[in-house]
Amino acid sequence: MTIVVPGAAHSGLPWAADEVQQLRALLPFAERLTPVTRRQLGRLLDDGDAQIVHFSGHGSVGANADLTALELEGGESITAMAFAASRLGSTRQPLLFLNACTVGRGGRVLGRAGGFCRQLHRSRLERRRRAVLAGARRQ
Fold first, then answer.
1. 90-93: long-range contacts (C-beta < 8 A, 24 or more apart)?
2. Which of 89, 98, 123, 132 is most exposed, with minimal Cβ within 10 Å?
3. Domain locations in the chain as residue ranges
4. pLDDT digits (tens, 9 = 90+) for 14-29
5. What's the Cα-to-Cα distance from 83 to each of 17, 60, 69, 80, 110, rounded to whole Å?
């Protein structure tokens, strides 16, 4: 399991640091990704074998649903399309728990469903794999 919580102490999400501690107590083998930059997350997405990825942080709405993004540290982000196109997103089958505002929202993109859920589901359907995505939607 990999825990991804950008700037837990300074994120404006007072429960984020507690969430990390609770997860580490329940799952002592869990690794925490730090710092949560695009480069570090890229290593996890391209080289990692995490079976569970737990993200808790901010999300942002893009110009369309497929550009909805998870906000990282240092002003960086990763869009639904980039996440789904990564090795972890396209060839692995991790349980993803995304606890971030707006990432649960879908929308129409060029006449089809779009967004984080749809991008991840589509990448797995094309490879005949099952997708598991859990999350909380906060406003």
1. 90/123, 90/124, 90/127, 91/127, 92/49, 92/50, 93/51, 93/124, 93/129, 93/130, 93/131, 93/132
2. 132
3. 2-136
4. 788 888 899 999 999 9
5. 24, 14, 9, 5, 20
